[in-house]
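Re: weekly structure request thread

Next one in the queue (210 aa):
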Amino acid sequence: MLGLIGKKIGMTQTFDEGGNLVPLTVVEAGPCPIVQIKDEASDGYCALRVGFGEVPAHRLNRPGLGVFEKAGVAPRKILREFRVEDVSAYSVGDILDVGVFESGESVAVTGRSKGKGFQGTVKRHRFKGGPKTHGQSDRHRAPGSIGQSSFPSRVFKGMRMAGHMGDRRVTVKGLTVVKVDKARNLVLLKGAVPGGRGGVVILQKQSQGK
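Done, posted below.
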């Protein structure tokens, strides 16, 4: 689905018509120039390859710089593809901005979650932990038994244990666009999106029922 690349600015809040407090995430989306158009004849599918975030030419290697020179577009830091049903209405060099979104529609937002480092099972998997009384002294946040003794004498794959937490690709679906500010390239979304302030996010239109 058509979408934009953006940057998470932060969170704020507002009140709706009923006086209820609504949390909002502010995303600076676009402008995103179209760098390449893929169609059924040449690539087997229809998609738009767009860029975001200007970057000096010397920060790119030759193949990367060649992509932008061929398109006649200033170098961009990030490139992403968005599948579309028909590419006939688009041309290389066209600019996609927040005007592709409307207030009230649903979008899916993809970002990279905050990295938490190495964490135990209580924080990583929300384990309850052991008892705090009755002689217990050092197992308050321990995971407990992780396997069997005589059979099958091993730990099953996928066992929830301590390990690296966060810093992974996360997609949140069904977020509502509350407001679109075309003058400042801002999209206000109801709710929270993955990642911290300044993180790159992908906004995509979402069809009903998905």
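The chain is about 10% helix and 40% strand. The two ends are 12 Å apart (CA to CA).
Next request, please.
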